[in-house]
Amino acid sequence: MAANLATLRSKVELALAGRVAAPFTYRDRHALETVSSGIAEIDSLAGGLPRGALTEIFGPACSGRTSLLLSALAARTAHAEACALIDGCDAFDPHSAEAAGVELKQLLWVRCRNIDQTLRATDLLLQGGGFGFIALDLSDVRAEVLRHVPLDAWFRFRRAVEDTPTILVVLEPESNAKTCASLVLRMEAEPARWSTTLETHAAEICRYPSSWLFDGLGIRAELLRSRMQSSAPNGFQKHFDSAGRSEIFETNAMRDYLSIARIEPTLK
Amino acid sequence: MPLLKKVSMAFASIHVPNFLVQAVMRAEPALRARAVVLVDGTPPIWNVVAANEAALQAGVELGMAKSQAAQFRNVEIRHRSRLQEKSAHAALLDLGASISPRMEDTAPDTIILDIAGLSSLFGNEENIAAQLLQRASGLGLITHIAVSSNLEVALHAARGFAGITLIPSGEEAKRLGPLPVRALLPSTEILETLERWGVRNCAALAALPLLQLSERLGQEGVRLHELARGTSLRSIVLAEPGVHFEEEMALDFAVAELEPLAFLLGRLLDQLFARLEARALAACAIRLRFDLEDSFEKDFQVLDDKSPRLAAKTYEKVLGLPVPMRNSKMLLKLLRLQLQADPPHASIVKITLSAEPARPRAAQGGLFLPSCLDPEKLELTIGRLANLVGTSNIGSPELIDTHRPGEFRMKRFVPANDESKIPQKRVITATAQAGQEDTSTSSRAASAFRIFRPEVQAKVELQDDCPARIYFRGMRGKIVSASGPWRTSGDWWREDAWQQDEWEVDIRFDASASRRNERIPNSRAQDGLYRIYYDSIRTAWFARGRYD
Fold it and tell me: pLDDT tens digits, residue range B41-88?
């Protein structure tokens, strides 16, 4: 019996030679290498961004998706990794990215006009390989359009990125990748932070607009799904155990306008 | 070859037999197994000027009319191509330069190399000859090679004997003996005289008494006698190998489709890169030039201004490469992508492909370093993406030194692989710019901004000079917080001067708009912080983008 099994096993291995490296070797799909997202709160919440997997970040407009993306890009480009941004709505702001610490020379920016171009460009980049970080920005694409993206596109992306050192991040208004995503984060905006030099109440911000400065955004990130194995020292933990947790992190406004002539505030 | 060790042979002669036919076959390798004849002349009179062995065996004779040659079955008829001959000669020179810098350009089909002192690099003379034969084969040429200490002996042995011929010093007369007198290239008159005397090979010529030969044939006879005995002496005339790599092909029939064109380009690229490889070089740019067919209908192009203009008769394209490459298949794909994106406007009658030579890329990989992007593969991926989204829509953004909002330019994506080459950046946030020490915010991200392209015109209602309500993209919203105005202006001396008052506004949209119109996105989901501005020159409000 054992001999028959061994023969059968060798026959299967022979038949799959060249296509599957080790068909009978257990491969733990959950043991993914993670890297820092550039935001400590996100790293403590999700354990970082996984390589060789699809990460989905979704939320409404102004919910901090792009801030998280730029932080991750800044972290990756600082390590001389080649990064690519497939911009589904041509909304990327290089000035903002530069101020966020992104090394623009390391970033390949693909400006697409529609969803078809965006998906095809992603396919080409994933097949081309060699990129450490690929971001697919569909933040401003209408949710109805994204719902019509066939599920096999997400499966194809997941399969293409599997067993590669590439981090694939998708930014959307709603979650669409379903089970293809190894990490799903929902972003939500907290009230914006304003500061003033005047002794006025925040409710009076519109009375003295020139005396108020935008300081930054508060952003709540909620972990909806994580297929990554926990790196807890006590051993194997059940997956999804951290799902539902959330963290708030804050972003700082870029004061590029401080160098520009400011109209002096006049108290009314 | 124990005898070879005693002598020091210094010259290697490389001869391409049936050069005219081989030049054509080099561009069309499928012809090698066929009987081929070349015709040349003034239309409509075409005569056979060259034929390969298979064609001669089939009964084709030189000088025969084209119509007569066409009577033979399985004989391929081609026109003599001087462009191909030029390319084949250049390839022959590259072959010589790949072994020795001291080279004589004796004839279009023959070169002589000074190979003295090359044994430490390539081994003995036999090895050098074998390498020459192999490299010639790689360049698409079948050659005869002869090595001798006497330059003239090597030259005539290569012309007369097939394959590799090694002639040790002192054996020149003996080895040249069986060589036909015709191989010494005598004048027709002297050749006829020698034929009448029954002198048909070099051995017979060398056996003739020199004085009597001189009396009957003059100095030419003496020269031939010396050549036949292998005692003629002359110095090598050095030629400088060129660094111009160009392949041309004139087409009998104009090509209009991309597929057959790609096939021809593939052949030319193979030839070009074989030459570059022979010289241990790579290409850092490829220049493509098509001569286009004359056509009345296609000679006029209608431009944007609707005025017809005479179209150019040539089409040129330069493919710049990020790193020197030698992969012809990869470059063919890149050229195809370029031609798909910008095809020539008429059929092609002549192709010229030239390469700008450069030293090949040398990269040292590290065992514990992450694998970097393969530049060749990256170039292909970028080419495909450019074909998809347009050349201007792909690349690395580069900021321009101006205060004009949103200005940048796209440049070629050339990532650095070394972390040390990446300058350490500091995130420019409010705290950092103010120069304050704030450890609690050190890990904070910068608020990202998303731009509306093109900018969106908006209607803004003011209340006490402060934006109170806004209407854009079919959505109406209330401004709950506003900061501004921040005035910027510049380029007043140009036509596109700007003067803007920027505001940062927190908008709450009405939900009713999206309920009325399905095309309007969920307006409540669009709530957030936007940057709007009043353009003083255009006297209108615009939404620049939003924070995200």
Answer: 887 888 999 999 899 988 888 888 988 888 888 888 988 888 889 989
Chain-chain contact of B445 with A93 (C-beta, under 8 angstroms): no
Query: In this predicted model, what pLDDT tens digit does every residue of B195-213 receive, in sequence order?
Result: 888 888 888 888 888 888 8
Average pLDDT over every residue of A23-29: 66
Give CA–CA dist B211/B195, Å, rounded. Answer: 19
Identify all chain A residues contacting B528, using CB atoms and an 8 Å cutoff: 60-63, 189
Judge whether B438 is closer than 8 Å to chain A, CB to CB. no
Which residue among B398, B399, B430 places its CB closest to the CB of A215? B430
Please give the domain boundaries of chain A with CATH numbers for all domains.
26-266 (3.40.50.300)
CB contact under 8 Å between A105 and B488, yes or no, is no
Residues of A in contact with B384 (CB under 8 A): 124, 128
Token digits for B153?
Answer: 């002996």
CB pair distance less than 8 Å for A104 and B414: no
Tell me if residue A158 falls in helix, strand or coil: helix
pLDDT of residue B431: 44
In the predicted model, is pLDDT for residue A249 greater than 60?
Answer: yes
| Cβ atoms of B47 and B65 closer than 8 Å | yes
Our CA angle for B290, B291, B293, nearest 5°, is 125
Residue A96 to residue B427: CA distance in whole angstroms = 10
Residues of A in contact with B547 (CB under 8 A): 62, 192, 217, 253
Q: For residue B99, give both structure tokens.
A: 């072994």
Whether the CB of B462 is below 8 Å from some CB of chain A: the reply is no
Among all residues of chain B, which has the CA nearest to that of A91? B451
Give counts: helices (H), strands (E), chain B.
Answer: 16, 23
- Is the N-terminal amide bond of B101 cis, ω within 30° of 0? no
- Helices (H) and strands (E) counted in chain A, each on its own, are 7, 11
B450 CA to chain A: closest CA distance, Å? 5
What does the alpha-carbon distance between residue B251 and residue B302 come to, in Å, rounded to a whole number?
28
Q: Whole-model pTM?
A: 0.74
B140 neighbors B91 (Cβ within 8 angstroms): yes
The reply to whether B496 touches chain A by the CB within 8 Å rule is no
The tokens describing A17, both together, are 């030679």
Q: Which of B374, B396, B427 sits opposite A101 (nearest CB)?
A: B427
ipTM: 0.82
Determine whether the interchain pair A192/B481 forms a contact, defined as Cβ–Cβ distance below 8 Å: yes
How many angstroms separate the CA atoms of B38 and B63, rounded?
10
CA separation (Å) from B225 to A217, B61, B196, B229, B271? 99, 31, 17, 6, 41
